[in-house]
Structure formats: structure tokens, C-alpha cells
Amino acid sequence: MTAAALAATGAGIVVDAAGPFQAGDYRLARAAIAAGLDYVDLADARGFVAGFGQLDDAARAAGVTLLTGASSTPALSNAVLERLTREWRRIDSVEIAISPGNRAPRGLAVVRSILSYAGRPVRVLLDGRWTTRPGWGLTVRRGMPGLGRRWQSLCETPDLDLVPRRFAVRRSVLFRAGLALSPLHLGCGP
Questions:
Q1: What is this structure's pTM?
Q2: What spatial distance separates the first Cα and last Cα of the chain, rounded to whole Å?
């Protein structure tokens, strides 16, 4: 969508929830800047969120606000960590997990997101050093209060970069997701 088309809508803000953001670019955010509109997206793609800062100067010059990652990762996960660790002096390891119920919609964007990194190298902080592990790998079965035991596998998310920096984590940071039905979860694996 062009800046003129955005401005013609009469909107005051652009919200991008289209996903998946893994192969996305910043055309819509740039169009929002050019139209003088604030912008927020639900991006949970590591590369998309990491590169978003390149738009800062243009947004400031246009007097608009741009927000990326207003999703369960990184926005909610980081907010929870901020609250939980407020008085802590040191954090050695962080492991984040999300596991939606079987009735939660698994749209095309979610499936494409998982398939974009399943089996591919994902950069993670493990045992105090950066290394790679296969996406949707490092599978474990963990108990989740009120939900029972769920399979969880490594996800490629912005948290893998943001959490070690923001919280000065010393040893390990992992982000895993799990699907409620075992065949569905295990069927997505490498």
C-alpha cells in the first residue's frame, strides 16, 4: 500500500497483523512514515524485528511513532520477564515457552512461520556461548500448569537476541513453542 492510499483511508494509525513477517520487508512501515501515520505491527520474526531500527531516523523526522514486535514474542514475553526479574541481581538462564490450546486458531501465517525455520540453524545462547541448533528442535516434553504435559520445540524469535542483551543473561536463553496435539507438534519437526 502506498503512502497516498494510507492517507486516503483517514486512519490515524497503521496496524500490520498480516504476517508471517519472516520474509517481510518494511514497505508498509515506510508508507506509514511517508503518510505521517503512526505504525505498529505484530511481528515475531527475529530478522524483521532486528532490522527495524533502520526506520528510526525517518520516523523521528516525520514525527511518527513506529512499534514492532507487539506480539506474544517479544512484547509480552519481555514484559513478563521485566516484572519477574525486577529485583534480581543476576540472571543465569531464561527459558520461555508458549503453548496455545487446540482450539486456538493456527492460521496460515503461524504454519508458514514454523516452516520457515524448522530444521534450519537457529542461533542461540547455550552454556555461555553462541551456537546453532535446528529450528523446531531441542524438543522436550514439559508440564504446564493447568494444561498437562506438552511437547515444546525451539523457535526462531526476536527474544533469542533481545533477552540476552536486555537482561544480561549469562548462560542460556531458549524460546520454545508447543502445539496441543502431539501428532501436530511432532509432525512439524525436522
A1: 0.86
A2: 36
